[in-house]
Write a structure and sequence with these properties.
The protein has no helices and 28 strands. It is mainly β.
């Protein structure tokens, strides 16, 4: 059965069809975009309402997606947000949208009760006392499984911020410091799913190229984080000195974690695969075991995502021979070495404007 993909790179938003039976990806729509739409958030109450931004500017956009007609129609835009936003995340009701700015080190809180986003407030990610002398780089907001809290990873201040999504101004209620030089980028809550409090948080650090594992304790007002482990994203840890981690994903069954290694000097770069382990005799603890690395057949895999059925990884490469590849997951969670489908870079980057390849790829319905 065919699946639909949303793919984006500077100046372009694509709708594509991935057909496993024929091992092909075909581009159905190439929608021009005035800037770099490097991330999308899909409304949890309306899967055809998408939000994005121009990472090089300060404009936030809402689009209506029609897969049957292969159309993306802009329905709203706002210039009120921070510049240099690089990630968006919804609350579970779809009424609040969080934008995190790497460029300004700020966190935009949007009201999205209508399709037109309205800026509620902008929060400074940097604490004036704790982070004095440092440059904030708010990189991602992650909603916890209960829907009560957002966690914001700040790459510049080496910190994690906990925000209360149930209060109107979504204030910061806790700041967690991670080892200096880590560069917190993206994270995932464990276990996968919604409703129950998470027991752990896996934090991918761009600068140290490590996954930090935290055990969580929910209180009446916030979440407490306790560091329990740190794991390199490379089989050869020395490679971490010449790289910058990109994305992290957790399998639906909670048994496997995947991260992307990028900005290396090797001809192609990799997806790292970890197995999640529960040590015997440990009270609720978790460990990660790095199983292997698989080539993305390209360079700079800034973002990848798991397919909806969990059988594949969709990977975007900003450079290299292949712009998009599909990596199949085996039953044991390992990745097949050869992609099952892909899009050559030359078929989507044709020498005009910003020539960077796909920065975002996601299966949509």
């Amino acid at each position: 059965m065919s699946r639909r993909l949303l793919i984006a790179r500077p100046g372009h938003i694509y709708l594509a069809t991935y057909t496993p039976a024929s091992a092909t990806i075909t581009i159905d729509l190439d929608e021009p975009f005035p800037g770099n739409p490097s991330w999308f958030a899909i409304s949890p109450t309306d899967p055809h309402l998408l939000y994005t931004f121009d990472e090089g500017g300060s404009t936030t956009y809402a689009f209506r997606l029609d897969l049957a007609a292969n159309t993306l129609t802009k329905v709203a835009q706002s210039e009120d947000g921070s510049s240099g936003v690089c990630h968006l995340a919804f609350n579970k009701e779809g009424t609040i949208l969080i934008g995190t700015s790497w460029a300004e080190g700020t966190i935009d809180i949007w009201n999205t009760e209508s399709s037109t986003p309205e800026l509620i407030t902008t929060i400074q990610s940097k604490d004036p006392v704790v982070d004095a002398g440092r440059v904030a780089r708010a990189h991602e907001a992650v909603l916890d499984p209960t829907g009560r809290f957002f966690v914001v990873n700040d790459l510049g201040t080496d910190s994690i911020l906990v925000l209360d999504a149930l209060r109107p101004d979504v204030p910061v209620v806790r700041r967690v410091t991670v080892p200096s030089g880590s560069g917190p980028r993206h994270g995932v809550f464990y276990p996968a799913g919604e409703g129950k409090p998470a027991t752990h948080y896996f934090l991918l650090c761009e600068t140290s190229n490590r996954v930090q594992v935290f055990k969580l304790k929910y209180t009446e007002v916030d979440i407490e984080f306790t560091a329990t482990g740190s794991y390199s994203t490379f089989l050869d840890e020395d490679m971490g000195a010449f790289a910058a981690a990109g994305e992290i994903a957790l399998s639906k069954d909670g048994g496997h974690v995947y991260t992307s290694n990028r900005l290396m000097t090797t001809p192609t770069e990799t997806i790292a695969h970890f197995r999640v382990k529960k040590p015997e005799g440990d009270d609720g603890g978790l460990e990660l075991e790095l199983v292997g690395e698989t080539s993305t057949q390209g360079k700079h895999p800034r973002m990848f995502s798991l397919s909806r059925n969990g059988n594949e990884l969709f990977v975007g490469n900003q450079e290299g021979e292949w712009g998009v590849v599909v990596l199949r997951r085996r039953e044991d969670g390992t990745l097949e070495e050869e992609p099952v489908a892909g899009v050559l870079m030359e078929d989507i980057v044709k020498g005009e404007g910003d020539e960077r390849g796909p920065m975002f790829v996601l299966e949509v319905v």
